[in-house]
Amino acid sequence: MARVKQTELAVLCVLGVQPMTGYAVRAAIREQLGFFWSESFGQIYPALAELERTGLVERHEGTRAGSSTYSLTSDGRARLVQLLKEPDAPAPRRDGLMLRLFFGRVLGPDACRELVERARDSARQQLAVYEGVRASVEAETTFPEHQAYWLITISAGEHTARAAIDWAEETLASLDGQRERYVR
């Protein structure tokens, strides 16, 4: 799925929950989807303008400048469903840690160990954040029809973080075995 189409999908998704301003769309993407999705103001406002131009959202002027609220039209809701049904096209992966570890012989096991320890610590922090978000979502009463689906995505994040922690522990043990083989 092309980047523009992905932005369109993200904007339609958050507007599918409730009407909101462009700023609130950005905040919802950052705060609620930020664990697995990001968009910038530079992507959101052109997407909103295009969605309005094509009749997929409508703008309701606010009482002050820049406070327009956007809501989905019936065509916008149909487009949202259409986009959600399309298979996701994975983006090419760029993982700096894996690049460094692949060529870890150059760095040596101690430097690689530091990289992996940082990755493990980051995964532990991320897991703690997911656990906090889970508690908030489980206590949420505003959008009960969305709760089970939100918990599914949180669970994916928790599993990913736990897998990263397990991988890091296994890798650290492997690196310990590389010390005696490493000669600069």
TrEMBL record:
Transcription regulator PadR C-terminal domain boundaries: 94-175
A matching Pfam family: Vir_act_alpha_C
Leader sequence segment: none
Span of domain Transcription regulator PadR N-terminal: 11-80
PANTHER family assigned: NEGATIVE TRANSCRIPTION REGULATOR PADR, TRANSCRIPTIONAL REGULATOR YQJI
The name this protein goes by in its record: PadR family transcriptional regulator
